[in-house]
């Protein structure tokens, strides 16, 4: 007899994890339908002439042991050569398992590296530690007058917080004070979203910034200084304060390419270059999924016992047959997404240099936040520092400039050669590179990268209630839930969905609770 079929829309972290979990723990046979020809969604790795690009930067860090163990099951941790005392993930069973036969990245490709994290803010043509540290250098860069205003402003917010905070501006002011907000948060956040912080829901801050505050930063510093206060597990560490993370040898896409191989080896099916054109509903169930092959135009209908959707909610609503009620369609059409461009540049060297003699001319940053208002570039990645194996020629510097935009706006429609020249000129203008040192480049565009917390988002619960009413439909992942999830949250949403299927649980609240429960917070 044919096994029961689970149709999974999207081969990103959530979709591939759902397929993996179904094969390992249920009698459902998964069919993954992927619109592109790649695995990993926005967590994929792009290979340009042997130089690899991580779209957006993906640290492999989670407060979920379940997720961490899955990663190490797929890509075992490298031989750390005595670094175990510094590795934050220290479950004894995982340690003993790894030490038995740890892989050497010089000899094998299927390996997870331990990387040390550094990121900084570039503002006023100066570097600031990220998160902001209360160092003499920080105070010097800010200047005495601004530092004094920041202190007074923070104390005012601590003593007289804004009640019933509704927008992101109020969220930031309550945690940092107005002066620090205007110095380091306002312009960058508005560059990312293309909208005023006053128009963005405070729930975005709760989603991405969460427990971050001046006090959290001070507490983290004290824990490092005071004896007996070190916490080697991930659970006691705020996400953006972690100092190390895991990373696949060839970037995040390697994890999902390997996962896809395992799914197929276990009997799952993955269909690429195929878009979902219709979701056929019958009563309270999804009966089938319509698809179209992007290369041949061939149409096909897949009957479904279960459906997992990671496609943008806006597209999902538009595809439901028969059409949803008018109010649901209106909310779906009003959902907003921010799109993303990475410009990869290969250079002889960077103009910026390490502040101290460190045995190398390359700064150690994984990424640099560009806070300068006179350029469009939002963030800079240095791929050499994510993994040295991301660069074909280790004597060169391979960087990615990140631009936040909207489909069909000025940046999105700019021809590739013009965009590479534009990106080069911007970094030259602010003193990070000398454009004469650029050797090559490429452009990657990713639509619907960031689900936005404005537009009709304030009515999203109405859509959630409607879609949760289909008993065999599970929304998972970043775009599937219209939630700014990291890849570990996306994975966990798929794992919890399969938990529910196994246990017969009907309500889906625990899936939506992923990345909202206080214990799981990756606060910074």
Estimated helix fraction: 25-40%
Strand order of the largest sheet: 7-6-16-17-18-15-19
How many domain units?
3
Strand percentage:
15-25%
User: Number of helical segments?
Assistant: 18
The overall pLDDT, averaged over residues, is 89
Radius of gyration (CA) equals: 23 Å
Q: How many angstroms does the end-to-end distance come to?
A: 51 Å
**Secondary structural class:** alpha/beta
Beta strands, count: 20
Low-confidence stretches: 92-97, 229-234, 517-524
Q: Could you say which overall geometry the principal axes of the C-alpha atoms support?
A: globular
Largest sheet: 7 strands, mixed
CATH structural architecture of the largest domain: 3-Layer(bba) Sandwich
CATH T-level fold name of the largest domain: FAD/NAD(P)-binding domain
CATH homologous superfamily label of the largest domain: FAD/NAD(P)-binding domain
CATH class of the largest domain: Alpha Beta
């Amino acid at each position: 007899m044919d096994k029961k079929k689970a149709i999974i829309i999207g081969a990103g972290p959530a979709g591939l994890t759902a397929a993996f979990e179904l094969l390992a723990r249920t009698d459902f046979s998964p069919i993954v339908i992927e619109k592109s020809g790649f695995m990993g969604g926005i967590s994929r790795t792009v290979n340009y002439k042997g130089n690899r690009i991580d779209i957006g930067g993906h640290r492999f860090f989670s407060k979920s042991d379940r997720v961490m163990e899955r990663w190490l099951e797929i890509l075992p941790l490298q031989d750390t050569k005595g670094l175990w005392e510094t590795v934050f993930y220290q479950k004894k069973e995982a340690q003993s398992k790894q030490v038995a036969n740890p892989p050497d990245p010089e000899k094998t490709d299927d390996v997870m590296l331990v990387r040390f994290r550094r990121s900084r803010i570039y503002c006023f043509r100066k570097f600031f530690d990220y998160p902001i540290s209360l160092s003499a250098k920080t105070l010097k860069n800010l200047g005495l007058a601004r530092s004094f205003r920041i202190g007074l402003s923070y104390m005012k917010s601590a003593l007289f917080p804004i009640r019933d905070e509704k927008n992101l501006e109020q969220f930031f002011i309550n945690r940092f004070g107005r002066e620090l907000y205007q110095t380091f948060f306002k312009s960058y956040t508005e560059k990312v979203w293309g909208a005023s912080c006053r128009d963005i829901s405070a729930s975005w801050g709760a989603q991405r910034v969460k427990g971050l505050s001046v006090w959290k930063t001070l507490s983290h510093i004290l824990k490092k200084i005071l004896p007996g206060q070190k916490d080697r597990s991930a659970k006691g560490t705020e996400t953006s304060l972690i100092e190390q993370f895991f990373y696949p040898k060839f970037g995040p896409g390697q994890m999902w390419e390997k996962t896809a191989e395992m799914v197929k080896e276990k009997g799952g099916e993955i269909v690429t270059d195929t878009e979902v054109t219709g979701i056929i509903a019958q009563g309270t169930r999804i009966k089938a999924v319509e698809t179209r092959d992007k290369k041949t135009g061939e149409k096909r209908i897949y009957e479904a016992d279960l459906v997992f959707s990671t496609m943008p909610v806006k597209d999902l609503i538009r595809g439901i047959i028969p059409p949803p009620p008018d109010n649901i369609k209106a909310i779906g059409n009003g959902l907003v997404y921010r799109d993303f461009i990475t410009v990869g540049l290969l250079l002889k060297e960077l103009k910026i240099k390490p502040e101290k003699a460190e045995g190398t001319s390359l700064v150690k940053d994984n990424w640099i936040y560009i806070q300068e208002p006179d350029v469009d570039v939002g963030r800079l990645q240095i791929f050499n520092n994510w993994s040295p194996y991301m660069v074909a020629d280790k004597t060169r510097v391979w960087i990615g400039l990140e631009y936040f935009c909207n489909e069909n706006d000025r940046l999105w429609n700019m021809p590739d050669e013009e965009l590479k020249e534009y990106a080069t000129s911007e970094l030259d203008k602010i003193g990070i590179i000398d454009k004469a040192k650029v050797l090559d480049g490429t452009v990657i565009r990713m639509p619907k990268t960031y689900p936005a917390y404005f537009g009709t988002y304030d009515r999203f619960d109405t859509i959630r209630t409607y879609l949760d009413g289909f008993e065999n439909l599970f929304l998972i992942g970043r775009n599937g839930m219209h939630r700014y999830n990291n890849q570990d949250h996306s994975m966990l949403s798929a794992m919890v969905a399969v938990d529910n299927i196994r246990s017969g649980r009907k309500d889906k609240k625990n899936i939506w609770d992923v990345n909202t429960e206080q214990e799981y917070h990756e606060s910074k």
